[in-house]
Amino acid sequence: MAKFVLPKKFVSQYPHKFGQGKKRYLRGERILPPPLTGRETVVELMDRAFLAYNGGRLQQAGRLLVEKMLGANVVVGLSLSGAMTPAGIGASCLAPLIKAGFVDWIVSTGANLYHDMHHAMNLPLYRGSPFLTDPELRRCGVVRIYDILLDYNDVLMRTDDVLRRILQQPEFQKEMGTAELHYRLGRYYAELERQTGVRNASMLAAAYRAGVPCFCPSPGDSTIGMNVAGEELAGNRLRINPSIDVNESTAIVLATQQAGHQTAAVLVGGGSPKNFLLQTEPQIQEVVGAKVSGHDYFLQITDARPDTGGLSGATPNEAVTWGKVQPQQLPDAIVCYLDTTVALPLLTHYALAKHRPRRLKRLYDRLPEMVERLKREYAKHHA
Questions:
Q1: Cα–Cα 20 to 30 A to 303, which of 83, 207, 237, 347?
Q2: What is the pTM of this model?
Q3: How far apart are CA 78 and CA 280, in angstroms?
Q4: For the domain with range 54-112+175-381, which CATH number is right: 3.90.550.10, 3.40.910.10, 3.40.1350.10, 3.40.50.300?
Q5: Which of 99, 274, 324, 361 is flagged as catalytic?
Q6: pLDDT tens digit string along 185-210?
């Protein structure tokens, strides 16, 4: 091969004249990762190899979570949509995040909270295939959630039977919001874990132990809601009041911001839980009348596109126009277009490996005092 020496100075034959300011853009981390060896930890893999596209966004999300969102004076709300607890995400990710004090309040679909009960009862869900013959599964009494399989009688019907027995207890014979409903259910879920010998399997049991309020904006849209409705036919006096949920969730955000602290939104998927968590800011500004400027941090994992107009794909930039996110905080707003079952385990591991546990805020215990503050603020602006 002919001898070649790289020139020390580059001189273009066809120089282009550009404006000033390129250094402002060309100052990020250089993309030149070391070769992977197979011996890296998950943290090392994310820091060294997740450098661009959605890998880059996931690394940014991990750093945002660890370096800013988990500050001592930040209250972290997490929304959860999709069927994540049947896939094991409740046990593998959410329960550890709650136990570590990394999640302070939750908004979830009812389906996640219902299927969470299977794990508390130590009832098996199995890995299967999305390509099975569904009429044959129905004939055999097997239920499919994409590639998850469970027994209709021994899991679904057994869970419903235990749930109804719980809902018939005297403590449920009144009007309440879903935070109280799920706190009380969480106490039973924790007891079911104890009786069946499983540990840290239930997200709702973990939330009960940590005093983490868990809201469900569509309580009728799940098997928990179906059983509440069924028990009402039999004379059960449990009534779910959604206004309690709106006021309690709003009170959490208002009390946090009026104390001079920050709020963070971790949005796992989209749908109603995402909107319910973010609408706390417009509720404070439009309805209550208090002067606040939106959530400080925004981290979303989604597979939804923004151009279809759905809330699930709506960007933090759009949320700024509603007052949901502080405009000056947009650099601290990250969207990862990834499947939750891929992104959340990586993000959970990253956070647990890089940040020590936080002191539990136990917001459920403080809900009455925070709602009283909300009432006073509402009265001040609507005298």
A1: 207
A2: 0.94
A3: 13
A4: 3.40.910.10
A5: 324
A6: 999 999 999 999 999 999 999 999 99
